[in-house]
Amino acid sequence: MTSGAGATLAVYLDEAVGSGRAGPEQVEVLERSVADGTVQYEDLAELTRLTFDCFTEAGIDYIENEPTELGVGLPLPSYSWAAEMPGKTLDEVQAMGDACIDRYSYWAAAAYQDDAVVGAARDARMRRDLPQVLACLEENGVEVPTDATLDEIRRHVEELVVATETVVCYDDFIWW
Predict the structure, then answer these.
(1) Tally of structural domains, the chain
(2) 55 class by beta-carbon count within 10 Å (0-12 exposed, 13-18 middle, 19+ buried)
(3) Phi and psi at residue 76, in whole multiples of 5°?
C-alpha cells in the first residue's frame, strides 16, 4: 500500500486512467511518480511540451511564459492559450484545447501542485539541508532540541530572521 505523497499521487493516477482521456505519456509519468513519491519537474515540463505540440497540431495559439514558482525551488510551467480560432466557436476551441491538456498534462500538473506533494518536496529539501540549517541556528545562539520537527526548525529560522532582520539560515518560507 502506498502512503504519504505516493498515496496522494495514486489518486491522480487513478483519476487520469479512469477518465479515459489521459495519454500513455502522462500515465507513465504518474506511475513513476507514485513509486517515487513526487512528480519531477523535468517530467512535467516534457508533458507541457507535448501539450504545446498538440496545440500547434490543432491550430491553437499559445504563449509559453517563464515558469512560476510554487515555492522555493519548485518551478511550475506556465502558459496561456487562445480560445479563439477562425471558423470555430469558443466551445469548439475550448474542447480542442482541453483535449490536449487532458491527454498530456492535466493530472500530472494537478498532482505536482498538490499541497501534500509540495509539502513532501519541501520537507525533503529541508532534510537535505538540515545540517547547514542547524549549524547556522547554533552559530547565532538558537538552541534547537534534538527531537525538533521540521516545522519547529522552520519556526526557529523565522524567529531568527524577525529578531535579527539579517540572518537567514534557510529560505523556504512559503506564504500561501
Answers:
(1) 2
(2) buried
(3) -130, 125
